[in-house]
Amino acid sequence: MEEVKTMEKASDEAMDAVQYIVVKIGNEQYGINIQYIDNIVRNQRITRVPKAQSYYKGVINLRGEIIPVMSIRLKLGLEDDNYTDKTRIIIIKVDGATIGVIVDQVKEVVTLESTDIETVARSGSLVGSGYISAIGKSNDELISLLDIVALIEES
After folding, report:
1. What sections of 17-118 are H helices per DSSP?
2. Which positions fall inside the CheW-like domain (predicted)?
3. What angle (nearest 5°) sits at the alpha carbon of residue 91, between those of residues 48 and 34?
4. In CA terms, which of 6, 108, 137, 152 is 20 to 30 Å from 40?
5. Cα separation, 72 vs 142, whole angstroms
6. Domain boundaries in the chain?
7. Which of 36, 33, 46, 51 is nearest to 102 (CA)?
8. Which pTM value belongs to this model?
9. What does the pLDDT look like over 90-113, one tens digit per residue?
10. For 17-153, CATH number?
C-alpha cells in the first residue's frame, strides 16, 4: 500500500513540474513554457511589412507558411536585435495563431517544480514586467518566466 502512495505522490509532483526553454535576450535569461513552442529555426531573411508595429520585424516563409516575426527585445523596451550565429526564431503557437519571436540564444530546457517558481507582482513601473509571470530558480540561476500568451495576444 505504501508503494501506491509513493507512486501517487511522484505523479502529483510530475504534474506540478513544467518544462521551459531557457533563452537569452541581452544579458538576461527568460523561460518560455515548452507547450507553446512549435519549432526553433535559425535566423533567416525576414521580409519587412509596411506600417506594422515597431516590434514586428516582418514575416518569414517557413515551409510554405507565412509567419509574422516579432522582436521580444523591442516588445520589452530593450535595444534593437543584434543578429549573431546564435540568434534563433522560436515559432510559437497560441490559440491557433502562429508567430515567430527572435531570441539572442537558445540555452537549454529546464524542468521547474512549483517549489522552484515564485510569482511576481505585476507592476507597470518595471519595463516589460507585465510580460513576466514568475521567476524560476534552476542551478542557482534566476530565470524570468515569460507570459508568452500576454506577449503575443496584446500584439
Report:
1. 72-75
2. 17-155
3. 155
4. 137
5. 19
6. 17-153
7. 46
8. 0.81
9. 999 998 889 999 999 999 999 999
10. 2.40.50.180
